[in-house]
Amino acid sequence: MSLFCFKTNSKNFNASAELQQESTNLSLNITGEIPSWLSGTLVRNGPIKVTVNGKSNVHWFDGLAMLHAFSFDNGIVNYTNKFLRSDAYHTVFDDGSLDYGGFASDPCRSLFKQFLTFFIPTSHVAIHNANVNVAKLADEYVALTEVPLPVKFDLNTLETLGVFDYQDQLPKDKCWESAHPHYDFKQKKVFNYLIKFGRTCYYTLYSIQDGSAQREIIAEIPVEEPSYMHSFAITENYVIFTEFPLVVKPLDLIMRRQAFIKNFTWQPQRGTRFIVVDRQNGSVIGKYVAKPFFAFHHANAFEKDDKIYMDIVTFKDGSIITGDNLNVNSDNIFDENYPSRLERFSLSLKTGEVDSEVLFSKSNEFPRINEALNGQPYNYVYLAGFTDKANEKKELLNGESLYKVNTSTKEVLRWSENGCSPGEPIFIAAPNTQTEDDGVVLAIILDHIHNDSFLLVLDGKSFNEIGRARTPHSIPAGFHAQYFQ
Asked: Maximum distance among all alpha carbons in the chain?
């Protein structure tokens, strides 16, 4: 950790970050071999814990956004990392304050001067602390969080370029927007949705054509109490919203004056509702009720024999996100773990019946697939594994294994190494591949023994290590990455 002393308004303050160092185009030491056909850039986004005068915003969703880029060129790997220059970043390092709007933290008890923008006009276009994901929209590379607008960055330098301004009349600052858009390779479109908050709330499904910054409305579904839905599913003909029983009364966002997620309540009697929408005409095909559960991430979904199948990493309830234990890269030992499992849900479009089965019972998160099969039948999902044994408590969401799961046979392959915590596994298909798992899996590994990190390269088929590229410092646990060709 590096410690800096800043001076603002004639007052000294101490601001520190668990990773302060920013690097530019460093050539990394490689062991093993990096396939020469890898020629793109892997960009990972995630939160960095910061402390000002001994106080921190500790919830994982509220750490300052930092981008990490690994660029590949004929077996060589170069590394760049940089903080996103958001309004929150400048609040911390220029003003010496933690008084910025967050997801679950409210250090100054006046959080809704930010989140009240759902209802009150903003005085300027904010550069949000976009620390969840990255994507490409209208030929721009953007960092994403769950509050618009996305933040543009330079793929080569990771310099922050300002907000991505949608060219349409849909809300830009009075809504919630998913940080997990889907891309359709056939239609050359991005699909995503936002939640309009107001006296009447709506789930608004939209698409964006390649090269365009205009969101085209597909459907607007009225809802009285919106659900917190981190991601959603897509198939060849449908979009499916998984509406968990973690819901909010819109007026509570104003009246209760507390952190955003603290306004949501768990109502298991509602069950979990699958809302199936025709992605061509926007009509609601049906609403199907299943057992109550919570999830962050969908692995994949597809259609077969008048049924929709959805593979989701499930938790028993929403306490993992509403509680106080989701701390950013904390050393704390928690009173309970949050076991999860990969489940397959089948929705009968004829009878409305919903069934489920467990595909993988060990705790896991961050499911990824061969993205060419997004919304199509598939066999393989790659996962980060976490401990789920009460007597083996570790840092929450700090991985201990990587898994490759065959969803058809339930065969499992595993990678692990003593003292190492893997992050999200990203599958990259080899050129001219003919099989689903022909390629490599990339994952950023936090090495607690050597106090640094490395980029791991696994063979997509055998799940054996091919090579690794070691970074000059530890990269704390983070969220999501995308590979840009």
From this structure: 70
